[in-house]
């Protein structure tokens, strides 16, 4: 996702604010990263126990509040890729 | 990366074959995933302690052997994105 200029760190803080509840919501991995080549691009990589766990997490009041708070600082330019984890280290 | 038809699982197996040595090489996270919408696309998400750790890992004999083994099964179509991790769960 891309933020409006000057708001990347605010959005990163919002994205990281809900980390404590993620594991019990069925999330195995949640990595918030920023571009090394611009000041507005944020990448979030997530691994969930199931599609349903992820979908349910989006309905949680705290998730909805965080999305509402971040939205005005985002350009609306989103890309996403759904994948199936085959294995590795740390997953 | 994309594999030639029918070789995705072979390449996934090669990518996962070196997982045991990754942590001592300075790798914190290594996730091999496959597309849910085609049979030839593989994504690898990695978090390294430093750029230098990653660069050094590419010179290891076992890494070079794995790359040599996988190469004939790849189309050559690679994309990559270098990022800085801001935080999260599992990193």
TrEMBL record, chains A, B:
It comes from the Bacteria. It is an enzyme of class 1 (oxidoreductase). It holds the Pfam family ABM. InterPro entries: ABM_dom, Dimeric_a/b-barrel. Keywords: Monooxygenase, Oxidoreductase. SUPFAM superfamilies: Dimeric alpha+beta barrel. The keyword Oxidoreductase applies. Its EC number is 1.-.-.-. GO terms for molecular function: monooxygenase activity. Transmembrane segments: none annotated. Residues 1-82 form the ABM domain. PROSITE patterns: ABM. This is Quinol monooxygenase. It comes from Micromonospora vulcania.
